[in-house]
Structure formats: C-alpha cells, structure tokens
Amino acid sequence: MATLIATYVVAWVGIGAYAARLIVGNRRLDRRLGELEAFAKPNSHGLSHVQNAA
Amino acid sequence: MGDVQRILYLHVSVAWCGLACCLVMAVCAAMFLVRRRLEWDQWSQAAAEVGWLCSTLTLLTGSAWAHEAWGTWWTWDPRLTSSLILWIIYSGIILVRGSIEDPYRRGRLGGVLAIVGFSDVPLVIMATRWFRGVHPVTPEMDWSMRCVLWACVLIFMGLFTHLIVRRRRQLGLVERVAQLEADVWLARTGQVDSVLVR
After folding, report:
1. Three-state SS for B150?
2. Which of A25, B13, B69, B78 is 20 to 30 A from B195, alpha carbon to alpha carbon?
C-alpha cells in the first residue's frame, strides 16, 4: 500500500509542478505583454510613450 | 498483488501519453521543416516537454511496479530498455533545444532529432512481441478493470493535451514579448520612429 501511495504522490507532484510552472509563467508573461503593449500603443495625441520619449 | 496492481492505471496511461506526445512532436517537427513556421516548432517543443514528463513518470511508476511484481527496481528487459532510450531521446532533444539561440536553427535541429527519435516508438510498442522479456505483452484483466483503464487513459490524454496547449501558448507569448522588447529598445535608442503593436 505504501508503494502505491508513494507512486501516486510522486506522479501528481511531478504533474502539479509542471502545471504550476506553466500557470505562473503564463501570468508573468501576460503581465509583461500588457505593460509593453500599453507602452507601445498610441495615446490621444496619436503618439506612443516611446515616440514621446524620442 | 493486492492494492499495488492499481499502479497499472497510472503506468499504462502515462506510457501511452508519452508515446502519443512523441508522435505529436515528430509530426509538428515535420510540419515545421516543410512550412518553416515557428508555430509548428512551438507545438513540437511543447509536445517534447510533456512527453519527457510522461516518459519520466512511466519509468518511475514502472520501477515501483517492477519492485512489487518482480522483486527488482530495474531489469534490462527489451520494453524497459526501449522506454529508457525514449526518455534519453526526449532529454537529448530538450537539452539541444535549450542550447541554441536562433529559433529557426533550433527548430531545424530539434525537428530532425524529433523525427529520428520517433523511430524508437515502434520499438517500444513491439518490444514485448519481437523480443523475449519479463514485461507482459497485454495483461489479462477483468472487463471492469479494462473500463477503468480506458477511462484513465482518456482522462490523462485530456490532461496532457491541455498542458501541451498551455505550454505552446506560453512559447508564443515568450516570442511576442521578446519581439516587443526589441522594438521598444530600438525606438528608445532612436533607431526606429515608432513601435507597431502587432
């Protein structure tokens, strides 16, 4: 019984770790993409932050 | 074998998923080599990573099974050896991919390795029929156990398909963020006039 439980625990920890890495990575990338797009989008004057800075 | 026989449901499911991932990886790699579109390479990479996870779990759960059934953690049975070779192929592909910066070169080399590596899959499947060993060809089981096994296989296929889709989306995001960061850097340094949001 201990072997059975240990096997299932190891398997689900492995799958869970990979899934958690994906979820955290996707959230971080979504946030970064939002920042970059907000930075690059034109404002009411038709200029992006980057163009203003230039 | 008592309760330990329940390892079978997990072991067979992840083993089949590992083989299916290898098929997806090779098909997507071939599509990349033909079409030269990075999306196909991203699908291939996602399948390789999830396949590696499945292959690792196959070896671990199989080892636990072997310890209970045969009294040893490992034996050089043809099925076990060909499964280990598949794990080494997955590991090699992931390591090679991680060492190449240029995405198209990475895709070409990773693609060729994926297609060559797929040749191990028929060997894994047929190992118990072609060679003599201790691994059972198809374990005899009651129809109710067979139903549970099929349900487990389908559920794990769904789970790993979801993981591949999520990972492919992440790889797409990584590429898009890198492209935007490069554009912003160029605009900041005055090398281009504006940043285009694609």
Report:
1. helix
2. A25
pLDDT tens column, B178-192: 888 888 888 777 666
How many C-alpha atoms does B128 have within 13 Å on its Cβ side? 10
| Residue B6 DSSP one-character state | G
Q: Are A4 and B183 inside 8 Å of each other by CB?
A: no
pLDDT in tens, A29-53: 999 988 888 876 665 565 555 555 5
Packing angle of the helix pair B78-98, B120-130 (nearest 10 deg): 170
Q: How far is A43 from chain B (nearest CA, A)?
A: 13
By C-alpha distance, the chain A residue nearest B69 is A3
Is ipTM strictly over 0.90? no
What is the pTM (predicted TM-score) of this model? 0.87
Q: Is residue B167 within 8 Å of B43, Cβ to Cβ?
A: no
